[in-house]
User: Fold these one by one.
Assistant:
Number 1:
Amino acid sequence: MTFTRVAFSNLRRNPVRSVLTGLSLAVSAATLSVVLSLDKGYSSAVTNELVNKTGVHLYVTKEGCPIEAASVIAQGGLSPLYVEESIVERLKELPEIEAILPFKLFSITTDDGSRTDIFMGVTEAIRTVKPDWQFQQGGWFEHDSSVILGAEMARIENLGVGDRMYSEHFRREFVVSGILKRNYSQDDGTFFLPLATAQRLVGREGKLSAIALKLKDISPLDASRNHLRSIVPADYFVIGSRELSEGILRFFGSTRVIMMVMVVIAFIISVFGIINTMLMAVLERRKEIAYLKCVGAGRRDLLMLILLETMAIAVMGSALGTAAGIALSPAFGGLMRKFLIAFVPSGAIARPDAGIAIIAFLGCAAIGIACALYPALRAARIVPMEVLRNE
Amino acid sequence: MNNSTFIQLEHVTKLYHRGPETVHALEDITLTIGAGEYVAVVGHSGSGKTTLMNILGCLDHPTRGRIVINGHELQHAAEKELNRFRRQTIGFIFQQFFLIPTLNVIENVELPSLFTGINKKDRARQLVEMVGLGKRMRHLPGQLSGGEMQRAAIARSLINSPSILLADEPTGNLDSRNAEAIMGVFEKLNGEGMTIIVVTHNPDLVKRCSRTVHIDDGRIRT
């Protein structure tokens, strides 16, 4: 006979109630797992995409809302803001800059809204700025109508080097000159065009979405940024790639707050559910508890019994919920990708891992067990003679 | 206290406060019970029998007076000390059996040993055999008759080898045949030297006791 045996056997008294209480905690654990997976996944996906993989240290863009600038740089938008291409010549004079990538980025959505293609007009500097930008097949643009396809676009369009691709939107044919190696970034889903071609297609000759800069040495990043600010016109922004990702993540902050509120609500419901269940369990068993006190059960013994009973529910509920949350996170990541207003990075948005599972499991189990403290204290304080005499 | 005295109550008074009213549950009780006695405590409902059992069972402190059981002075003992004393010295049987419905017979019998930290599975098996439930060891309380449940409760009260058995209306929920069986078990235990104190309204049980204590309005009537 052990405390565990007695505590676990008590769960069988009202199995439906035990299961429902465990499930309420499972919902909390699942919600926490999903939210943590999305939060971590989105943050690392944005940072990975905009900081780690681009090789870009600074962007020059037009003054305006920093989030809009971020969105234009990251995804292409139809912003009225643009950078004059003539600025590139001024930047070439700066000794601290290793490479300058002027680009024109825009997206075209089909009339039925079912597909959005991202086009990026680039110069050969992209090969210096983005180390991951490498050819799987073919090579650089051969003429104005050349196109380089990201790996995913080539797969979707089933195109190879030398194939012709007709664009309904532009009523123009392109020839595939190269296909990129997959680098698990937005590049995989992008059509790359010669810069001048891209500008002409959208009627923005001589105008850029932004200019990406790679520095020779990033240690004096602030000094370089300040220097650049003194070179470019006053209504231009010079922002770091990390600031860019942070700007997007700040925008994501409101979504994060809503997700955290959902977690808190789920926890509040669970907490009241567990307290209610265990309090009912104690009140229903007052006489038995009184008898146990008669035969020498101390307060610590009764605390142990109630806490173990709750622990069984909490551990099972938390384990089930954490496993479900981790398993369902990718599905929620897919949903988020559909409905997120902010920048949507490529790759998985939800990134569940062992650390998240441990936090969700231990956090929920601990809260569940803590909920038993009050009912356990009520049990420990039962005065046997009062219960046995009055009931 | 002479050598044969096992339980001694001296001028024990117990008062309860019920709102503005003070209830004299026990009034200046002096009672001596020798080792191995089989005592019936009788009286009307509300006469103070259960309060006396609570005091004897160390479940309640007297308002005034002195209690000595097996040489231990207990009227001022702390809860922890009383818990330990009850665990080692006293077995309880109640009219309602208070068996844990999700534990089988042998587990219920073993239960009080949980708080001593000593494994008493073998003794539990012996006790279950002794009360005639050997073939129902693995049955849950819900599968037993009232008499069987009370026999299981008796076995449970004996698991820690107490010196005193306190029984509050042990035959109150039983038919005459089962009551007879329970009385037989008590006689056997008393024959082995156990001190038994029974609160009862059952005249057959009273007759079998070696002594009867009458309580009326919180006082012992001689």
Note: Helices of chain B lie at 49-56, 79-89, 105-110, 121-130, 146-157, 176-191, 203-208.
Number 2:
Amino acid sequence: MTPYTSEYLRSLVREDRVHRSVYTDPQIFELEMEKIFSRVWIYVGHESQIPNPGDFYCTSIAHQPVVMTRHLDGKVHVLFNRCGHRGARVLNEESGNARILTCMYHGWSFRPNGELAGVPMRRDFQETTLKEAQSGMARLSRTENYRGFVFASLNLGVPPLVEYLGEARHGIDELVDRSPEGEIELWAGCHRYEYSGNWKLQFENLADMYHPPACHASTVGPDGRQFSRRPGNRGGSAPFFAPNGEAIVAQTGVRGFKNGHSSEASLFREEQAGGIWDDYRAMMVKRYGEERTAEILKNRRHSMAIFPSVDILIAQTSVRVIRPISVDKTEVQVYPVRLKGAPPEISTDIVRFVNLTHAAASFIQSDDLEAFERCQQGLASSGTEWMLVARGFGQEVDEGNGILFGDRSSEVGQRAQHYAWRDLMGAA
Amino acid sequence: MSSAGVVVKPESRAELRLALADLQQFVEQEVALLDEQRFEEWLDLFADDGAYWVPARAGQDSPLNHVSLFYDDKHALRLRVQRLRHPAIHSQVPRSKTVRLVANFKLETHAADPSLYQVTSKFVMLEDRSGYARRLFGGRYTHVLRRKGDGLEIVLKRVDLTNCDQSFPSLTQPF
């Protein structure tokens, strides 16, 4: 029996490699729920998912059912989805609208801010008991909103959200700034896919520019170009190979950030243009001016992964949520984004293209899912105890503010994730 | 679009039965091409303006305002077939084998264009991939078909899965 001391857990991550048990040991998974998912900021949802008073959206944090609600005064809350009386889960649908949330078991009811609203046959309880906070749906007191992205933490002592996000908050800014109104909406539902593998396999993939030439080989056509991955007559499709035969994607850079966040440089060289995208650009120029518009629409980043729960897909204009189910089961959701104020065709184009890249049936995602499952299967072998994240190790450039840059699809992003894992799991 | 006179609308009950039998046979042959992995021939059944659509929400009214499991125009469908034939499609090592059963055919009126045939049916599909658990899918097909010469072409194949709003492992086979 392994004693899971802090020292032992720290020893599972070395500078350029990770012990395989980090992916396969169910007890380590439960410790992750306690020491990572219950300690840091976890993305709950976007406020556009609950636009009206009484709207709710259910999810979970570290196995615990929670619900994001909009109270009648418009304020957003995150509550534990649990009745104060005997503990039943109150809301059983993922989303909906209810001004009063009623427990199915004995009929206790709650306001969207969690306050107890009604108790059948009330006089048989002592009023002092019903007045206790215990009797409501308890609120997660640490709930913060960054530009519409609602995060919560089970850790009362967690530092402020902006501090946790650090430089990675710019990933959210770069997506939201693409709206002529500076606001986005998750408006078109989400792709849901799952795989028989550990959640970190998906998370590492979010910073992985090295895999496409092999993993996604079947998406490259006979003309040497990948299919058009984003809309626009120009700036959507790109040649896959450089003149020296290397895949261009694998020549791009990656950044690792403090607290385990990571970003990939953009695959694309050109601005999206042609047709409606020209109209959109004109709207942006009108709002922000030419210089700022060029800055916003620059192909700076492909994505920004915010450890350990959400990925901002800037190039694909969508948001991906990673939900660990068990040590070898993970569910992922991908929400196409509406850029508020942009022409409607922009939003519908985004929906169409995200179907091609991120549906369970998409050209890209089905390859990645195969890779995650094969990793989980392969990591079961005891012949080699470590898996490597060694690419570009020792060649990182320190850009300051806790940012390390590595070119040529460096595994610096995965290292940042694992170092954050080590700090959290290794904490006393 | 076919000119008047090419589209023969069934008037009598006998003609209706004949038309439904033709349409039914077309759908059975269409899904047989998928069972037999004759993907290129399957692709050829689609009209140039045709689409293959698997909604991700029950009763979804548009592929543009909500995500779909598949929403391929003919161009995307061609890419999909090319990919299914690519030697490096890892999610098809080993390959899937599928079988589809189709039943309960009904001829409906196409709301927007009465010259089109709309056929609905119920289906069940098994997918087996060596080393993996058997997968079972089921739901409703809607085929919107157009006369093309002596035959038919697919304007829309819509597949409403009973579990369309759930989370899926990788999907490689069209339904």
Note: Residues 85 and 135 of chain A are 6 Å apart (CA to CA).
